[in-house]
Amino acid sequence: MTSPEIASLSWGHMKVKGCSTNYKDCKVWPGGSRAWDWRETGTDHYPGVQPADLEEVLKKGVDLLVIGRGMSEALQVPSTTVDFVKQKGVDVRVLQTERAVAEYNKLAGQGAKVGGVFHSTC
């Protein structure tokens, strides 16, 4: 299975190629995607992305995870969360969301087993 391309990104809206759903925040992995609902794990801009937000994507067998912190990088990513990903043997890149989507799409286009979690607003 290949990682789906993110077809479009604008403030508050993301579209994944091959999926009819529009997302505000989303998770993507080889073969799928879904909305990233922060309420599931109690995530907020601070302290930010928690390991629980990433477990689902990591279980899909990705070799690399891209985290989009938002258009203005308001979403924090604690070093403990980055360490959690690395301890799973997965490389991680934390970027502003537009740069994160570009990096994710480049890697997906190269056939990498890449996953991502992206925040599309602040």
Automatic annotation (TrEMBL):
GO terms for cellular component: cytoplasm. It holds the Pfam family DUF498. Keywords: Cytoplasm. The keyword Chaperone does not apply. Gene3D superfamilies: MTH938-like (3.40.1230.10). It comes from the Eukaryota. GO terms for biological process: positive regulation of fat cell differentiation. It is found in: Cytoplasm. Its main location: cytoplasm. Belongs to the AAMDC family. PANTHER family: MTH938 DOMAIN-CONTAINING PROTEIN. This is Mth938 domain-containing protein.
